[in-house]
Amino acid sequence: MNQKSVSGGLGINGRRTVSYIVLAIVSFLCLFWFYVLFINCTRSHSELTKGFTILPSTHALENLYNIFHGSLPVIQGMINSLIIAASCAVLTTYFSAMTAYAIHAYDFKLKKFMFTFILLIMTIPTQCNALGFIKLVDRMGMDDTFWPLIIPSIAAPVTFFYIKQYMDSALPLSLVEAARIDGSGEFRTFNSIVLPLLKPAIAVQAIFSFVGSWNNYFTPALILHTNEKKTLPILLAQLRGADFLKFDMGQVYMMIAFSIFPVILVYLLLSKHIVQGVALGGVKG
Amino acid sequence: MKKKSNVVKYNKWGYIFLIPFVVTYLIFSLIPLVTTFYNSFFECYQSGLNQIGPNFVGLENFKKLLSTPDIWIYAKNTIIMWIMGFVPQIIVSLVLAAWFSDPSLRLKGQRFFKTVIYLPNLIMASAFAMLFFTLFSTTGPINDILLNLGIITERYDFIGHVWSTRTLIAFMNFIMWFGNTTILLMAGMMGIDPALFEAAQVDGAKPGQIFFQITLPLLRPILVYTLITSLIGGLQMFDVPQILTNQTGNPSRSCMTLIMYLNRHLLSKNYGMGGALSVILFIITGILSIIVYKITDKKD
Question: Per-residue b/e over B148-185, b at no fewer than 16 CB within 10 Å?
């Protein structure tokens, strides 16, 4: 309603001003928290108790040194998170492309059924079968290992759907035909001709898959028990659970910054592709 | 004849390429789902050090689960916090998407703004929740700032009160998801035939009229899609309230969500009740998923 009266009563310049003001407020709401985090992770505990300042201080390295030598295995946690997230990104994109290629390039009896089936399971949350999942992992002897967090990423309906849509617009079947005439085997065609053509889509989905796994808290918290195997989100939960006042607040902020800023950095470098990717993947225009 | 056999020869590769997906899905999703359903019919939990069950009890777990007030309280909490986050999210996203895609407005710095509003979506939810916990704690910087500005006269315990805690959780969800929704809605708006807008402008329609009479009705399928997928996501709300309230859902369980409840059953190895809760969640999200499927299918 507000939108109507505002835009009805103002000229084009007025409307433009209003949109810039709203955009500025919204951007502030998105960035403010990370700005405060940035300032506070550079300050020492005693500085932090004196109240908030606008400018950063000089204790960043000291805080970083302290969390690396503290009671939580932060570096190990980051390595664990990295291993799991990177493996997931590779498996998800490669096998989703393979699945999408099966549906895209071949005609077989169950094709329509499989496509419908994958679309149907796309939105069903993993939490619904978590109970059976931990029982299965237990019985397979994979409890407290990385495998149950990595292998299931081979079957990723959302990534499949995105790559399938990309194939519809960017992978002409005549190309596959030509490869066949040249005597290339189906598997080789997929690896050396189809995959390179899908690079843009695969890059976007690799980022999403990496970030999704990096941020995941629910499943790893049920599977990983040993301190040395835990990922960053579990360590953060532990930090939250510990008696808060005993902590050096500079370290707490540095620990949060340590989990957030690498992702922000990568995002800023790749933001153009990511934002475009979201728009492409959601709904067909 | 020869050509046909060739096609068949190639098409068997369709099945071969599907093997990794199907096998993985079968083992790590379908079998666990069946086990979860199976477990929901058994009494199986630990009482102190004693293992009770598993004994077959039919639908007893469901009866017990649905007749205690707990699940209804947690369902209510989940829905309340979802609505508190979704309403501002859809309004802000619609307005921003309309501005971004309005050619007469010619907004500068669009890429910058899109980058900024999408940023929170990629942040680790548990780290974001931990950050809000420290920022909004009684000794934290938000209290410092509010005191300095004279907005409050004594420190306010944000996560000690029901509605301030719920608001924080809903606000975090809003911040994390409105950028994503904006970009999706914008893609939808770009897909609308520009001739429609031009015709309306020639007829003297005001920007507000164009928005409500043309953009919104044509956007309806995408809006419904956004609503339902957001509801499915809302039902899975876990990381933020779990970390912010330190797994308790306090104050007085007002921020305990359904998945936090499930997580509690899983950790205490109460598989009967956990199974029943999972089945109920599966049925609800299953129905919602079919609706999403119907919408996307119609569009193709």
Answer: eeeeeeeebebbeeeeebbbbbbbbbbbbbbbbbbbbb
Give the list of residues 6+ apart from residue A218 with CB closer than 8 angstroms, or none: A126, A127, A130, B238, B239, B259, B263
Domain ranges of chain A: 2-61, 71-242
pLDDT of residue A282: 52
Of residues A197, A120, A193, the one with CA closest to residue A161: A120
Q: Is the peptide bond before B32 cis (omega within 30 degrees of 0)?
A: no
**Residue B55 phi, psi (nearest 5):** -120, 140
Verify whether the Cβ–Cβ distance A236 to B130 is below 8 Å: yes
CB contact under 8 A, B278 and A136: no
The alpha-helical segments, DSSP class H, found in A106-231 are 111-121, 130-139, 147-150, 157-170, 173-181, 186-189, 195-197, 199-215, 218-223
Interface test with A, best of B114, B131, B171 (most A CBs within 10 A): B131
* Contacting B residues, span 29-68, partner chain A, CB-CB under 8 Å: 29, 31-36, 38-39
CB A200 within 8 A of CB A133: no
What chain B holds in terms of domains, given with CATH numbers, is: 68-299 (1.10.3720.10)
Q: Which residue of B has its CA nearest to A282?
A: B184
Q: Where are the extended beta strands (E) located within chain B?
A: 42-47, 50-56
User: Does domain A71-242 match CATH 2.30.130.10?
Assistant: no
The fraction of chain B above a pLDDT of 70, given in percent, is 96
Rg, chain B, Cα only: 25
Quote the CA–CA distance of B220 and B298 in Å, as a whole number.
13
pLDDT in tens, A72-82: 888 999 999 99
Express each pLDDT in B77-132 by its tens digit.
Answer: 999 999 999 999 999 999 999 898 887 788 888 889 999 999 999 999 999 999 99
Q: Is B208 on the interface with A (CB under 8 A)?
A: yes
CB contact under 8 A, A260 and B188: no
**Cβ within 8 Å, pair B293-A119:** yes
Within 10 angstroms of residue A226's Cβ, the number of other Cβ atoms is: 9
Cβ contact B206:B91 at 8 Å: no
Average pLDDT on A101-120 reads: 90
Q: For position B277, what pLDDT does the model report?
A: 93
Give the closest-approach CA distance of A98 to chain B in angstroms. Answer: 6
Residue to test with chain B: of A22, A23, A131, most B Cβ within 10 A: A131
Amino acid at the residue A104? H
Could you give the 3-state DSSP secondary structure of residue A250? Answer: helix
Given a contact cutoff of 8 angstroms between Cβ atoms, the answer to whether A77 and A238 are in contact is: no
